[in-house]
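Hey, resending since the last one bounced:
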Amino acid sequence: MYDLVVEGSYPEDMPEDVKVDCIVFNDVLEHTVDPWSVLRETKRHLNVGGCVVASIPNVRYLPVLIDLIFRSRWEYVDEGVLDRTHLRFFTRSTIEEMFASSGLKIARLEPINPFRRRGGALLKGVLGDTRYLQFAVLARPV
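The structure tokens again:
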């Protein structure tokens, strides 16, 4: 059961006095013009001890890199990392920077949805995160 339903755009239409325990951005932030502002605004809507959970596509994903480096292609598609409705693109390090600059401390940052083709497991070390389609984030206000 819900205590409150808010219709409209977030965070503009969120009532000033509303506080929640968790705000979830599953494949949302990359669709916003200014995800840094969205995250900064989110802090004021969290209860003490509240958190932000997000999943964010990884533009450093191996299939995207192969198309860019070997085929000179950066083609927007209907879904995935290069979804034509994405306004922003992120890597692990730029996700970390975005959350930090927005006043949120990342408690967990995990790569998810690994590339499952032959040879994908050979990618380790500095290229290890190229195997993953997305990152899952758990963060709390500083």
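The mean pLDDT is 92.

Sorry for the duplicate.
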